[in-house]
Amino acid sequence: MKFLTLIIQIVIISIAVYAAAYTVDETEQVVVTQFGKPVGDPKTEPGLYFKIPIIQRANYFPRNLLAWDGESGQVPTLDKTFIYLDTFARWKVVDPLKFFRTVNNVTGALARLDDILDAAVRNLVTSYPLIETVRWTNRELDTFEIGMDQTHEKRPLEEITIGREKIMKGILEQAQPKLAEFGIQLVDIKIKRLNYVEEVQKTVYSRMIAERKQIAEKFRSEGRGEARKIEGDRERDLKRITSEAYRRAQVIKGKADAKATRIYAKAYNKDPDFYSFVKTLDIYRKTMNKDICLVLSTDSDFLKYFKGYKGKE
After folding, report:
1. Which residues form the domain of 274?
2. Nearest to 88 by CA among 188, 195, 196
3. pTM above 0.85, yes or no
4. CB-side neighbour CA atoms (13 Å) of 131
5. Residue 182: closest CA among 112, 90, 89, 107
Protein backbone atom coordinates (compact mmCIF):
# COMPACT_ATOMS: atom_id res chain seq x y z
CA MET A 1 0.00 0.00 0.00
CA LYS A 2 2.82 2.40 0.89
CA PHE A 3 4.55 1.48 -2.35
CA LEU A 4 1.44 2.27 -4.36
CA THR A 5 1.06 5.59 -2.57
CA LEU A 6 4.71 6.40 -3.33
CA ILE A 7 4.16 5.59 -6.98
CA ILE A 8 1.09 7.85 -7.09
CA GLN A 9 3.03 10.67 -5.41
CA ILE A 10 5.88 10.33 -7.89
CA VAL A 11 3.43 10.43 -10.81
CA ILE A 12 1.69 13.52 -9.41
CA ILE A 13 5.01 15.24 -8.80
CA SER A 14 6.17 14.34 -12.34
CA ILE A 15 2.98 15.74 -13.83
CA ALA A 16 3.31 18.87 -11.73
CA VAL A 17 6.92 19.33 -12.72
CA TYR A 18 6.04 18.74 -16.41
CA ALA A 19 3.20 21.23 -16.20
CA ALA A 20 5.37 23.74 -14.38
CA ALA A 21 8.40 23.50 -16.68
CA TYR A 22 8.65 25.21 -20.06
CA THR A 23 11.50 25.93 -22.42
CA VAL A 24 12.40 29.00 -24.44
CA ASP A 25 14.57 28.60 -27.56
CA GLU A 26 16.58 31.18 -29.48
CA THR A 27 13.64 32.25 -31.68
CA GLU A 28 11.12 32.74 -28.86
CA GLN A 29 10.35 34.93 -25.89
CA VAL A 30 7.74 34.28 -23.22
CA VAL A 31 5.41 36.34 -21.08
CA VAL A 32 3.98 34.42 -18.10
CA THR A 33 0.41 35.37 -17.17
CA GLN A 34 -1.65 34.53 -14.13
CA PHE A 35 -5.39 34.68 -14.66
CA GLY A 36 -4.73 36.67 -17.84
CA LYS A 37 -2.42 39.24 -16.24
CA PRO A 38 1.36 39.30 -16.79
CA VAL A 39 3.53 38.33 -13.84
CA GLY A 40 7.28 38.74 -13.56
CA ASP A 41 9.68 39.79 -16.27
CA PRO A 42 9.52 38.42 -19.81
CA LYS A 43 11.78 35.48 -20.55
CA THR A 44 13.92 36.53 -23.51
CA GLU A 45 16.93 34.26 -23.02
CA PRO A 46 16.83 30.61 -24.15
CA GLY A 47 16.69 28.01 -21.38
CA LEU A 48 14.47 26.01 -19.00
CA TYR A 49 11.98 27.92 -16.82
CA PHE A 50 9.23 27.08 -14.36
CA LYS A 51 5.77 28.45 -13.61
CA ILE A 52 2.89 27.57 -11.35
CA PRO A 53 0.92 24.78 -13.03
CA ILE A 54 -2.66 25.47 -14.09
CA ILE A 55 -2.68 28.95 -12.53
CA GLN A 56 0.02 30.43 -14.72
CA ARG A 57 0.36 30.23 -18.50
CA ALA A 58 3.35 30.77 -20.83
CA ASN A 59 2.59 33.03 -23.79
CA TYR A 60 5.10 32.63 -26.62
CA PHE A 61 6.05 35.40 -29.01
CA PRO A 62 8.54 35.24 -31.92
CA ARG A 63 11.91 36.79 -31.37
CA ASN A 64 13.17 36.65 -34.97
CA LEU A 65 12.32 38.97 -37.87
CA LEU A 66 8.74 38.88 -39.09
CA ALA A 67 7.30 39.86 -42.46
CA TRP A 68 4.68 42.45 -43.24
CA ASP A 69 3.30 42.56 -46.77
CA GLY A 70 1.18 45.59 -47.54
CA GLU A 71 -1.70 45.57 -49.97
CA SER A 72 -1.09 47.37 -53.24
CA GLY A 73 -3.10 50.54 -53.43
CA GLN A 74 -3.58 53.62 -55.58
CA VAL A 75 -1.51 56.56 -54.39
CA PRO A 76 -1.26 60.05 -55.99
CA THR A 77 2.13 61.73 -56.14
CA LEU A 78 2.79 65.44 -55.70
CA ASP A 79 2.63 65.96 -59.50
CA LYS A 80 -0.84 64.35 -59.60
CA THR A 81 0.31 61.07 -61.13
CA PHE A 82 -1.62 58.09 -59.79
CA ILE A 83 0.41 54.96 -59.20
CA TYR A 84 -0.09 51.52 -57.71
CA LEU A 85 2.33 51.00 -54.83
CA ASP A 86 3.10 47.64 -53.21
CA THR A 87 5.38 47.69 -50.14
CA PHE A 88 6.78 45.18 -47.67
CA ALA A 89 8.55 45.48 -44.31
CA ARG A 90 10.46 43.50 -41.70
CA TRP A 91 9.72 43.93 -38.00
CA LYS A 92 10.26 42.21 -34.66
CA VAL A 93 8.96 42.17 -31.12
CA VAL A 94 11.44 43.95 -28.83
CA ASP A 95 9.22 44.40 -25.76
CA PRO A 96 7.09 41.26 -25.32
CA LEU A 97 5.35 42.61 -22.21
CA LYS A 98 4.18 45.78 -23.95
CA PHE A 99 3.38 43.74 -27.06
CA PHE A 100 1.16 41.40 -25.01
CA ARG A 101 -0.67 44.24 -23.26
CA THR A 102 -1.40 46.21 -26.46
CA VAL A 103 -1.86 43.89 -29.45
CA ASN A 104 -1.72 40.51 -27.67
CA ASN A 105 -0.59 38.48 -30.69
CA VAL A 106 0.97 38.60 -34.14
CA THR A 107 -2.39 38.90 -35.90
CA GLY A 108 -3.26 41.99 -33.88
CA ALA A 109 0.21 43.40 -34.57
CA LEU A 110 -0.21 42.96 -38.33
CA ALA A 111 -3.48 44.88 -38.19
CA ARG A 112 -1.70 47.77 -36.43
CA LEU A 113 1.12 47.63 -38.98
CA ASP A 114 -1.42 47.88 -41.80
CA ASP A 115 -2.87 51.04 -40.37
CA ILE A 116 0.40 52.76 -39.46
CA LEU A 117 2.60 51.75 -42.40
CA ASP A 118 -0.03 52.32 -45.08
CA ALA A 119 -0.65 55.81 -43.72
CA ALA A 120 3.09 56.58 -43.53
CA VAL A 121 3.70 55.32 -47.08
CA ARG A 122 0.81 57.37 -48.45
CA ASN A 123 1.89 60.47 -46.53
CA LEU A 124 5.51 60.39 -47.76
CA VAL A 125 4.82 59.35 -51.37
CA THR A 126 2.18 62.06 -51.86
CA SER A 127 4.63 64.67 -50.60
CA TYR A 128 7.07 64.25 -53.53
CA PRO A 129 6.91 64.02 -57.35
CA LEU A 130 6.85 60.63 -59.00
CA ILE A 131 10.51 60.72 -60.03
CA GLU A 132 11.56 60.97 -56.37
CA THR A 133 9.83 57.65 -55.63
CA VAL A 134 11.15 55.97 -58.77
CA ARG A 135 14.82 56.94 -58.79
CA TRP A 136 17.57 56.40 -56.23
CA THR A 137 20.31 58.64 -57.65
CA ASN A 138 20.93 61.17 -60.43
CA ARG A 139 23.19 58.84 -62.42
CA GLU A 140 22.84 59.07 -66.18
CA LEU A 141 20.51 56.41 -67.53
CA ASP A 142 21.42 54.30 -70.55
CA THR A 143 18.18 54.80 -72.48
CA PHE A 144 19.68 54.80 -75.98
CA GLU A 145 17.41 53.36 -78.64
CA ILE A 146 18.05 53.30 -82.36
CA GLY A 147 15.97 55.95 -84.08
CA MET A 148 14.75 57.64 -80.89
CA ASP A 149 17.51 60.25 -80.96
CA GLN A 150 16.32 61.49 -84.36
CA THR A 151 12.55 61.47 -83.87
CA HIS A 152 12.37 64.14 -81.21
CA GLU A 153 14.57 66.48 -79.30
CA LYS A 154 16.41 64.82 -76.44
CA ARG A 155 15.13 66.20 -73.18
CA PRO A 156 17.36 66.25 -70.10
CA LEU A 157 16.21 63.91 -67.35
CA GLU A 158 14.80 65.66 -64.31
CA GLU A 159 17.11 65.44 -61.31
CA ILE A 160 15.96 64.22 -57.91
CA THR A 161 16.53 65.95 -54.58
CA ILE A 162 15.36 63.21 -52.19
CA GLY A 163 15.16 59.85 -53.96
CA ARG A 164 13.49 56.60 -53.03
CA GLU A 165 16.02 55.63 -50.37
CA LYS A 166 15.40 58.77 -48.32
CA ILE A 167 11.64 58.46 -48.80
CA MET A 168 11.77 54.92 -47.41
CA LYS A 169 13.91 56.14 -44.54
CA GLY A 170 11.38 58.88 -43.86
CA ILE A 171 8.56 56.32 -43.78
CA LEU A 172 10.52 54.24 -41.28
CA GLU A 173 11.26 57.24 -39.07
CA GLN A 174 7.64 58.35 -39.16
CA ALA A 175 6.20 54.91 -38.35
CA GLN A 176 8.72 53.70 -35.76
CA PRO A 177 7.62 55.96 -32.82
CA LYS A 178 4.02 54.83 -33.30
CA LEU A 179 4.99 51.16 -33.39
CA ALA A 180 7.22 51.49 -30.32
CA GLU A 181 4.05 51.89 -28.24
CA PHE A 182 3.23 48.29 -29.10
CA GLY A 183 6.69 46.90 -28.30
CA ILE A 184 7.45 46.58 -32.04
CA GLN A 185 10.62 47.64 -33.81
CA LEU A 186 10.34 48.37 -37.54
CA VAL A 187 13.60 47.09 -39.01
CA ASP A 188 13.12 48.12 -42.64
CA ILE A 189 10.50 48.94 -45.25
CA LYS A 190 10.86 48.79 -49.03
CA ILE A 191 8.83 49.19 -52.21
CA LYS A 192 8.14 45.84 -53.84
CA ARG A 193 6.42 47.07 -56.98
CA LEU A 194 5.49 50.43 -58.47
CA ASN A 195 3.28 50.83 -61.51
CA TYR A 196 1.00 53.33 -63.20
CA VAL A 197 -2.76 53.03 -62.79
CA GLU A 198 -4.64 51.71 -65.81
CA GLU A 199 -5.63 55.12 -67.19
CA VAL A 200 -2.07 56.43 -67.01
CA GLN A 201 -0.73 53.17 -68.47
CA LYS A 202 -2.95 53.60 -71.53
CA THR A 203 -1.62 57.13 -72.04
CA VAL A 204 1.99 56.00 -71.63
CA TYR A 205 1.52 53.03 -73.97
CA SER A 206 -0.20 55.21 -76.57
CA ARG A 207 2.72 57.64 -76.50
CA MET A 208 5.21 54.78 -76.79
CA ILE A 209 3.27 53.28 -79.70
CA ALA A 210 3.16 56.65 -81.47
CA GLU A 211 6.92 57.08 -81.02
CA ARG A 212 7.62 53.58 -82.36
CA LYS A 213 5.35 54.17 -85.32
CA GLN A 214 7.22 57.38 -86.03
CA ILE A 215 10.52 55.49 -85.88
CA ALA A 216 9.13 52.75 -88.14
CA GLU A 217 7.89 55.30 -90.68
CA LYS A 218 11.28 57.00 -90.62
CA PHE A 219 13.01 53.69 -91.34
CA ARG A 220 10.51 52.89 -94.10
CA SER A 221 11.09 56.32 -95.67
CA GLU A 222 14.85 55.85 -95.52
CA GLY A 223 14.44 52.37 -96.98
CA ARG A 224 12.31 53.65 -99.86
CA GLY A 225 14.87 56.38 -100.54
CA GLU A 226 17.69 53.85 -100.52
CA ALA A 227 15.68 51.58 -102.83
CA ARG A 228 15.14 54.44 -105.28
CA LYS A 229 18.85 55.22 -105.18
CA ILE A 230 19.74 51.59 -105.86
CA GLU A 231 17.23 51.43 -108.71
CA GLY A 232 18.63 54.66 -110.17
CA ASP A 233 22.16 53.32 -109.96
CA ARG A 234 21.01 50.12 -111.62
CA GLU A 235 19.30 51.97 -114.48
CA ARG A 236 22.34 54.19 -114.95
CA ASP A 237 24.70 51.21 -115.01
CA LEU A 238 22.35 49.33 -117.36
CA LYS A 239 22.21 52.25 -119.80
CA ARG A 240 25.96 52.70 -119.59
CA ILE A 241 26.56 49.01 -120.29
CA THR A 242 23.96 49.00 -123.10
CA SER A 243 25.36 52.12 -124.75
CA GLU A 244 28.89 50.82 -124.43
CA ALA A 245 27.85 47.52 -125.97
CA TYR A 246 25.96 49.31 -128.78
CA ARG A 247 28.96 51.52 -129.49
CA ARG A 248 31.28 48.54 -129.65
CA ALA A 249 28.80 46.67 -131.86
CA GLN A 250 28.53 49.62 -134.24
CA VAL A 251 32.30 49.92 -134.37
CA ILE A 252 32.65 46.24 -135.13
CA LYS A 253 29.81 46.39 -137.65
CA GLY A 254 31.34 49.46 -139.32
CA LYS A 255 34.69 47.76 -139.56
CA ALA A 256 33.03 44.64 -140.98
CA ASP A 257 31.05 46.70 -143.52
CA ALA A 258 34.15 48.58 -144.54
CA LYS A 259 36.05 45.35 -144.95
CA ALA A 260 33.18 43.80 -146.92
CA THR A 261 32.95 46.89 -149.09
CA ARG A 262 36.65 46.71 -149.80
CA ILE A 263 36.33 43.05 -150.70
CA TYR A 264 33.31 43.72 -152.94
CA ALA A 265 35.01 46.70 -154.51
CA LYS A 266 38.14 44.73 -155.15
CA ALA A 267 36.12 41.91 -156.63
CA TYR A 268 33.85 44.05 -158.78
CA ASN A 269 36.60 46.40 -159.93
CA LYS A 270 37.99 43.60 -162.01
CA ASP A 271 34.87 43.87 -164.29
CA PRO A 272 32.82 47.00 -163.62
CA ASP A 273 30.32 46.30 -166.38
CA PHE A 274 29.55 42.89 -165.01
CA TYR A 275 29.15 44.37 -161.53
CA SER A 276 26.75 47.00 -162.87
CA PHE A 277 24.78 44.32 -164.71
CA VAL A 278 24.49 42.12 -161.62
CA LYS A 279 23.45 44.96 -159.37
CA THR A 280 20.88 46.18 -161.91
CA LEU A 281 19.35 42.71 -162.16
CA ASP A 282 19.19 42.59 -158.39
CA ILE A 283 17.31 45.89 -158.40
CA TYR A 284 14.93 44.56 -161.07
CA ARG A 285 14.18 41.53 -158.95
CA LYS A 286 13.38 43.63 -155.90
CA THR A 287 11.35 46.38 -157.57
CA MET A 288 9.59 44.75 -160.50
CA ASN A 289 6.82 42.17 -160.34
CA LYS A 290 3.41 41.59 -161.82
CA ASP A 291 1.71 43.99 -159.41
CA ILE A 292 3.94 46.97 -160.23
CA CYS A 293 3.50 49.26 -163.18
CA LEU A 294 6.40 51.53 -164.18
CA VAL A 295 6.18 54.44 -166.56
CA LEU A 296 9.67 55.40 -167.64
CA SER A 297 11.24 57.35 -170.47
CA THR A 298 13.01 55.40 -173.14
CA ASP A 299 16.09 57.40 -172.33
CA SER A 300 16.11 56.18 -168.70
CA ASP A 301 19.25 54.31 -167.64
CA PHE A 302 17.10 52.09 -165.43
CA LEU A 303 16.11 50.01 -168.46
CA LYS A 304 19.34 50.31 -170.37
CA TYR A 305 19.89 46.59 -170.37
CA PHE A 306 16.53 46.08 -172.05
CA LYS A 307 17.46 48.36 -174.92
CA GLY A 308 18.18 46.39 -178.00
CA TYR A 309 16.83 43.25 -176.42
CA LYS A 310 14.65 41.27 -178.74
CA GLY A 311 12.45 38.63 -177.36
CA LYS A 312 11.32 35.51 -179.11
CA GLU A 313 9.17 36.18 -182.12
Report:
1. 245-313
2. 188
3. no
4. 7
5. 112
